[in-house]
From TrEMBL:
It is an enzyme of class 1 (oxidoreductase). Belongs to the alpha-ketoglutarate dehydrogenase family. Its EC number is 1.2.4.2. Gene3D superfamilies: 3.40.50.12470, 3.40.50.970, Multifunctional 2-oxoglutarate metabolism enzyme, C-terminal domain (3.40.50.11610), TPP helical domain (1.10.287.1150). Pfam families: 2-oxogl_dehyd_N, E1_dh, OxoGdeHyase_C, Transket_pyr. GO terms for molecular function: oxoglutarate dehydrogenase (succinyl-transferring) activity. Signal peptide: none annotated. This is oxoglutarate dehydrogenase (succinyl-transferring). It comes from the Bacteria. Keywords: Oxidoreductase, Thiamine pyrophosphate. Its cofactor is thiamine diphosphate. Residues 569-762 form the Transketolase-like pyrimidine-binding domain. E1 component of the 2-oxoglutarate dehydrogenase (OGDH) complex which catalyzes the decarboxylation of 2-oxoglutarate, the first step in the conversion of 2-oxoglutarate to succinyl-CoA and CO(2). It comes from Albibacterium profundi.
Length: 927
């Protein structure tokens, strides 16, 4: 193995040649030579003092390489698997691997200095690194490219040989937490036989580990932890870490409902909880466990968003006061792409949270899938290498080693503000759920597990052997705790309903309330005084004269200043004014998404890069004397992760306008899990409101299937129980008011806005000053061009197609056709639609016009809703399709022309019927 082993008789000329290579590039020589030339008696080998022999020098190098070999590969030879033999790796850690043998064991080597021993026998050097890197803790860290971090980890681990040295009280506390974890699971299994609980059994050491994280973290300045995990072990964590009462948990097992009959709830092992705890050192820590659906790892970005929000709002940018903890399963962390998306956020300025503590409950099986079939990587945690984060692999049966490692992880996080991973090798005592038979698929493994002692029994035995505790202590702990659980179970039987132990409208949400259906239609006061509006508009359109901007940017801002003078504003300026007026009121605005700083369609330009440098300038951030809390970030190329993050951000602070924008609305497909599991259902499942805004560019401009549709129909089919708001605005003022409305009501609802593309520069898409200063958001915009008595046909529509219809109406002077815009699709403004129907009582036809195919867009929803209200509509649109749009420009134009022509095919339009027939035939040919 050792390429130098044959050079035992090498002379100093060879060493001199290595030294020359080292001087030119230290990385070009082996680790041992690097360390040697850094100062290991090189001077003596050059003829000063008692010269060492070349053979001994090479042995010194070999010892240094051995030390480095253990640091790099020692984790492959650890005792970390409690129920399986580890795979064998070659070459191993035999002396011969490093060019050494038994005859060298009592030789003194200066290389001992490298591990803090000073000159020492090889026997002692080897024992130290064997203890440190090959016992029940394995460490992966040598890929980190930061010498200080590597040195800190080496010193920390080698200085203590990775051997815990806890005092008696700490040991008793670990035993107590293990007792709670083990007895709790056993109690549930016997009292609620056959019910799913996704037991922690086999991984009970997680409870003392989390308990220690809180104790250690508090001592290091952490005031709050936000935890995300899937279902396995959640009930145990809720009870024995967060202190959710056993009585409440037992009520949930009994299937009792809450006092709020409108609250549908979720299964008990998905629910969240928050509380305050006091540590042994009398420090108060706030703990939150986020609710999570069965979509494993979905909670990860939500946790990170919550933490970042609190860093920004509550902790004045200090990430050392709050920390995220993400608890993964081994199959999930290896298999779920969202893990990668979130880890890639960890060092990005818009998303970093000061480092996440990742804990993997490594059961070595995913449902029924063996680990060998669950990943290609050596470890499930190999994704940690992406961000150069250290990983500690720990035997889950060794509770002291686990607590020791996780304490070190918290220290590392607090010192270096980066992610750190704990891979807890354990097992799952039963099947995926308690009704499963795991022997169907893992017979040999489960034969071993059946005979295996649980972590509490193993630790109690260890303490007894040490003489640390009395033989009766563990039995007394179990007896007392089991009696406590029985008392709480008896008490729970008297409860008829479950009370809300975590009210939504408290803390940051104090002063807000749950909205009723009718509340949505109460106009919010979103108008801004003309004086303030003009003042802000002038401020954000004035570029500093001492900075050099691109000419196109300067021209753009000249055009924006002209809008102020002309008191007429386009879409981009209206959006800027919505943000500017909120910032002027002391609110916070945060926007993120792909290319949002400039805007995908080059309309926003919220961040300006100077022509001759990388310096950036944000006009909106200059408001309030440069103190405006305006944040806008180009995200990495992620929808799922970033939308989840922004949902979490908005969840933690309802007083920030938090916006996620899709590059094209179509791309929201990639975030569907967040939409389904959090945005549209969290009030019903978890009693958690949210004011997140989603901006989804939508509209048919002939750009093909992936750049046309934000899938309006999908959002509308998810609308129920007043859960979200869906809008498709057609005027800049409408967009302005609906954005401001988010923060000008005493409740919060997610808002989905289908935003335009071509309309961003359409000359007709402008709003007058008075529409901002005296107006409000209107759910329906009636036709102001026609007189109702003369109208034969009424066209209802939403969004961009309105301007196609308007062009036809104005060109042909068609006052017999009224065009009515539905700006808010949900909650549907039914009273206003009925009023429109009454107003146009002479009309013979009422039609819905849309660009989307008949099975898409708003039509399926509108048809269903209006049918129930006895308003009969027919539809004009593209024919049903499996793809949202054509990719051929000529076909698109023909289809669009057919839609518009059909919309105006009334009795008064007989003279154009022949033209329409001809157009239809041409379109059919193209189809």
């Amino acid at each position: 193995m050792d390429k130098l082993s044959f050079l035992s008789n090498a002379d100093s000329r060879y060493i001199d040649s290595i030294y020359e290579s080292y001087k030119n590039d230290p990385e070009s020589v082996d680790f041992g030579w690097q360390k040697f030339f850094e100062g290991f008696d090189f001077g003596s080998s050059q003829g000063t003092g008692n010269a060492e022999t070349p053979e001994h020098i090479l042995k010194e190098i070999n010892v240094l390489n051995m030390i480095n070999g253990y640091r790099e590969r020692g984790h492959l030879f650890t005792k970390t698997n409690p129920v399986r033999e580890r795979r064998q790796y070659f070459p191993g850690k035999e002396l011969a691997t490093f060019g050494l043998d038994e005859s060298d064991m009592d030789t003194v080597f200066n290389a001992g200095v490298e591990v803090g021993l000073g000159p020492a026998k090889l026997r002692d050097i080897r024992q130290l690194i064997e203890d440190t890197y090959c016992d029940t803790i394995g460490a992966e860290f040598k890929y980190i490219r930061h010498p200080e971090k590597i040195a800190w980890l080496q010193s920390r681990m080698e200085g203590e040989r990775n051997e815990p040295n806890f005092d008696l009280e700490t040991k008793k506390r670990m035993l107590q937490k293990l007792n709670e974890a083990v007895v709790f699971e056993n109690f549930l299994g016997t009292k609620f036989l056959g019910q799913k609980r996704f037991s922690l059994e086999g991984a009970e050491s997680l409870i003392p580990a989390l308990d220690s994280v809180i104790q250690k973290g508090a001592d290091l300045g952490i005031e709050e932890f936000v935890i995300g995990m899937a279902h396995r072990g959640r009930l145990n964590v809720l009870a024995n870490i967060l202190g959710k009462t056993y009585e409440t948990l037992f009520n949930e097992f009994e299937g009792k409902t809450t006092e709020d009959t409108e609250f549908g709830g979720d299964v008990k092992y998905h629910l969240g909880f928050s509380t305050d705890v006091t540590t042994a050192n009398d420090k108060k820590v706030h703990l939150s466990l986020c609710p999570n659906p069965s979509h494993l790892e979905t909670v990860n970005p939500v946790v990170e968003g919550i933490v970042r929000s609190k860093i920004d709002m509550k902790y004045d940018g200090q990430s050392s006061k709050i920390a995220p903890i993400l608890i993964h399963g081994d199959a999930a962390i290896a298999g779920q792409g969202i893990v990668y998306e979130v880890i890639q956020m960890s060092k990005l300025s818009g998303y970093k949270t000061g480092g996440t503590i990742h804990v993997v409950i490594n059961n070595q099986v995913g449902f029924t899938t063996n680990y060998k079939d669950a990943r290609s990587s050596t470890y499930c945690t190999d994704i940690a290498k992406i961000t150069l984060s250290p990983v500690f692999h720990v035997n889950g049966d060794d509770v002291e080693a686990l607590v020791y490692a996780i304490n070190m992880a918290v220290e590392y996080r607090q010192k270096y503000h980066t992610d750190v991973f704990i891979d807890m090798l354990c097992y799952r005592r039963y099947g995926h759920n308690e009704a499963d038979e795991p022997k169907f698929t893992q017979p040999l493994l489960y034969k071993a597990i059946e005979k295996h002692l649980n972590p509490r029994e193993i630790y109690n035995k260890k303490l007894l052997e040490q003489g640390s505790v009395d033989a009766s202590l563990a039995k007394e702990m179990e007896k007392n705790f089991r009696a406590l659980l029985q008392d709480r179970l008896d008490e729970s039987k008297d409860d008829e309903v479950i009370s809300d132990v975590n009210p939504m409208y408290s803390g940051a949400w104090s002063g807000l309330r749950k909205a009723k259906y009718e509340d949505i239609f109460v106009p919010a006061d979103t108008a801004v005084s003309e004086k303030d509006f003009i003042k802000i508009a002038k401020e954000i359109t004035q570029l500093p004269k001492d900075k050099k901007f691109f000419r196109k940017i300067e021209r753009l801002f000249v055009e924006r200043r002209k809008m102020v003078e002309n008191k007429t504003f386009d879409w981009a300026m209206a959006e800027q004014m919505a943000y500017g007026t909120l910032l002027n009121e002391g609110k916070r605005v945060r926007i993120s998404g792909q290319d949002v700083e400039r805007g995908t369609f080059s309309h926003r330009h919220a961040v300006l890069t100077l022509e001759d440098s990388e310096e950036e300038y944000m006009p909106l951030a200059q408001l309030n004397g440069g103190k405006a809390k305006f944040d806008i970030y180009n995200s990495h190329l992620s929808e799922y992760g970033v939308l989840g993050f922004e949902y979490g951000y908005a969840l933690a602070n309802p007083h920030s306008l938090t916006i996620w924008e899709a590059q094209f609305g179509d791309f929201v497909n990639g975030a569907q899990i967040i939409i389904d599991q959090y945005i549209v259902s969290s009030e019903a499942k978890w009693r958690r409101s949210n004011g997140l805004v989603m901006l989804l560019p939508h509209g048919y401009e002939g750009q093909g299937p992936e750049h046309s549709s934000a899938r309006v129909e999908r959002f509308l089919e998810l609308c129920a129980e007043n859960n979200i708001q869906v809008a498709n605005c057609t005027t800049p003022a409408s967009f302005f008011h609906i954005l401001r409305r988010q923060l000008h009501r005493d409740f919060r609802k997610p808002l989905v806005v289908f935003t335009p593309k071509s309309l961003l520069r359409h000359p007709a898409v402008v709003s007058k000053l008075e529409e901002f200063t005296k107006g409000k958001f209107q759910e329906v915009l009636d036709d102001t061009y026609v007189r109702s008595a003369n109208v034969e046909r009424v066209l209802f529509c939403t969004g961009k197609v309105y301007y196609d219809l308007l062009e036809k109406q104005q060109k042909d002077k068609r006052k017999d056709v009224a065009i009515v815009r539905v700006e808010q699709l949900y909650p549907i403004p039914m009273d206003k639609l009925r009023a429109i129907k009454t107003k146009y009582k002479n009309a013979e036809e009422f039609l819905w016009v849309q660009e989307e195919p008949e099975n898409m867009g708003a039509w399926p929803y509108i048809c269903r809703k209006l049918r129930k209200s006895r308003i009969t509509l027919e539809v004009i649109c593209r024919k049903e399709g499996s793809s949202p749009a054509t990719g051929y420009q000529k076909q698109h134009i023909a289809q669009q022309l057919v839609i518009v022509e059909k919309a105006f095919e009334t009795t008064a339009g007989k003279e154009v019927k022949e033209k329409i027939k001809k157009t239809t035939k041409e379109a059919a040919k193209v189809d």
